[in-house]
Design goal:
Number of strands: 4
Strand order of the largest sheet: 1-2-3-4
Strand content: 5-15%
Distance between the termini: 13 Å
Number of helices: 14
Length: 334
């Protein structure tokens, strides 16, 4: 079983994936290494740097994930995100996030019917329904954080600021994810609390490479090799894969055909109009039966959107996003 230390990198993967999925900032046209704006506060030694990151994450400080990236990685993320922003259809993209936000608002208003529905929660046992009820506020706040962030509009993509996004949105999400983790049926597990107990010790290393031992109470120690990229220490596997995966991300985005999206746009917007009508019915439902009937009515337009996306060969309303350079074997945080 992997030690809690590895959750640092699972969280980094999550936050970076959010950036690659749909965020952007105007590139200044530079390439290669750039100065990291927070270089003064992150320790220079590898073990101390990882300790700093772990403790900041334990405080649900998402800004440290952006701070921990080498400057060139930050530039890569911004330029890839900018390219993604230039490829989306603004009207469709904005409508996706608006619809998700409205869906969550409507379900929150009608949550008694949600948890009583045979389609969602009615057939679960009492304990399962109680867990869903307990989890719902955090789920809603996570969605609210995303739908109110710069990710939620095409204009926001182009004006995206990575430092602000990680400091605000990612920080909010970390805290809510930790709450959800503690609601898991196998018992309370605060991964943020776990991170606060992780310790790092350098066991090998010279120059720009170091092997660190990561330990936590009740867990077997794990080792991981880090390399120095500019003024930051990153996992060796990530450093080795970064350039190739950035190139693949660019290739994937460049292959998106706006004309193909435009051809499907009337049908896509028509399906969203149907969904809007169904959401109005769900919101107006006054009985469980009315709610369930309205919810069933949502299935057809959702299936329609999925079929359209499939028929476009991956070039759907929102383009298929590139895979973030990731750590192999890093577990998903519970």
């Amino acid at each position: 079983m992997k030690s809690p230390a590895f959750k640092i990198f699972a969280l980094s993967l999550l936050a970076s994936a959010a950036c690659f999925s749909a965020c952007g900032k105007k590139s200044d046209g530079t390439t290669g290494a750039t100065a990291n704006s927070d270089s003064g506060s992150l320790p220079a030694a590898p073990a101390e740097a990882m300790q700093y990151i772990a403790h900041k994450l334990a405080e649900a400080d998402g800004a440290v994930l952006w701070q921990a990236m080498p400057g060139s990685y930050q530039s890569d993320v911004n330029s890839i995100a900018q390219l993604a922003g230039s490829k989306v259809d603004a009207e469709i993209y904005d409508k996706v996030f608006a619809t998700v936000g409205r869906l969550v608002t409507v379900l929150d208003k009608q949550q008694e019917f949600v948890f009583g529905s045979s389609l969602l929660g009615g057939q679960a046992d009492a304990e399962g329904v109680a867990q869903m009820r307990a989890a719902w506020p955090s789920v809603k706040r996570i969605v609210d954080a995303l739908t109110s962030s710069s990710l939620a509009s095409a204009a926001g993509l182009l004006a995206f600021d990575g430092q602000n996004f990680f400091s605000e949105t990612v920080s909010d999400m970390l805290g809510e994810m930790d709450t959800l983790a503690q609601l898991q049926p196998d018992g309370p597990q605060s991964f943020l609390a776990d991170l606060s107990q992780v310790t790092f010790r350098q066991v090998e290393g010279t120059g720009n490479q170091a092997t660190l031992e990561m330990s936590a109470p009740g867990q077997d120690a794990e080792t991981e090799t880090f390399v120095k990229v500019e003024d930051r220490w990153v996992p060796q596997d990530m450093a080795e894969q970064w350039t190739d995966q950035i190139a693949e991300a660019r290739r994937t985005l460049e292959e998106i055909d706006p004309a193909e999206i435009a051809q499907q746009k009337p049908q896509i917007l028509g399906v969203f109009a149907m969904i809007d009508g169904v959401l109005a019915q769900i919101e107006g439902a006054e009985t469980q039966q009315q709610f369930d009937q309205a919810l069933q009515g949502a299935m057809m337009p959702i299936m329609g959107l999925m079929m359209m996306g499939s028929s476009m060969g991956g070039g759907s309303a929102a383009p298929e996003m590139p895979v973030t350079p990731a750590l192999p074997d890093a577990p998903v945080a519970p």
